[in-house]
Amino acid sequence: MLNYLTLIFSCQLAGELARVALGLPIPGPVLGMVLLFLFLVFKGGIPEQLASVTGGLLNHLSLLFVPAGVGLMLHFKLLGSDWLAISAALVVSTVLTIVVTATMMTLLTRSSASGKGEE
Hints:
- This protein has a domain at 1-59.
- 84% of the residues lie in helices and 0% in strands.
- The protein has 6 helices and no strands.
């Protein structure tokens, strides 16, 4: 169990190191998730102990948002001065996410239905 927790943090560290070394505009933890995903693809699935560790983290995910909430409160005046741009970005990104999700669901549903019809 400790090995898989170390694996998760090592992937995050490797992603952060790669971001700094290569000067990429992608957050290090995102690169770490890609590395972890590639590891899982190579492994051929999610080991049971890794699922247990990640399940524990996901059960307490709300605690990980506390620092972000504190940051929002610290910069409340800055947010107030740029409320229009922030609101527009939130609305556009939300609508775009819904459109992309709906499109992918439609494509995957059609693909799945046509695959079942051929069998």
